[in-house]
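Below is how a single chain appears once it has passed through the pipeline. First comes the sequence as given, then the structure the pipeline wrote out for it. We keep one example in the README because the format questions we get most often are answered faster by looking than by reading.
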Amino acid sequence: MLDLNKLEGTKKKDYEASLLRKLLRILSLPIANALKNSFITPNMITFFYLILSFPIAYLFYLNTAKTNLIGAFLLFLILILDKVDGSLARIKGIQNDYGFWLDRVLNDFSRIVIFLGVTWGAANQFGDIYWLFGFLLISSYLLMAITYEIFRFLFSEGNNFISGFKSKMWIVRQVYYGDPLASVLLILFALFNRLDLFLILVGSYGILSVIIQTIIFTIKAKRYDKGNSQD
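Resulting structure:
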């Protein structure tokens, strides 16, 4: 079995990541190693895939079998490049908080641009109701990340709880809503030329995920707050 911890350019979290994240990390490593002696920096790669998200959004907006196929291929490239920047930073030994922040922010912005393109195209072709599903898709994508980070920030026990929960629940790691799962599902639906179903199903799944995560975090937050008050 391939041990990610022994590969140059990986990070500790890769070992307990979902299968999709592990696959993308493995695919990113040959590219990162090929670029390690070049002038290309991790931040250049981050900005490149941000720029690439705009033509992808337009391709999905057109929503034809041909444009969806091309968009799916380019989106898969973005998913790999999203791992290349981090791998390259570790290989070059130049990882820093600014690069991490830039990657997180531009990564989310990139996905929102693409999801907007999908939503706009579906609404034009199938009706305004798809703006609702697009709203569910994008808002749930952002809320999952926001509630996750706020919970970790406010409660010192939160990070241990999340790590422990994910390490014990293998299936949770595989189906956790966010990236890369949402993007991979978009690729699959695009290959079958059914972006309308992507919005309906994944948007609904996203909101359900937000509700479940919020309930779990709220229960744990109340317990942590009581424990701190007693101290």
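Residues 195-230 form the longest helix (36 residues).

See the next section for the split statistics.
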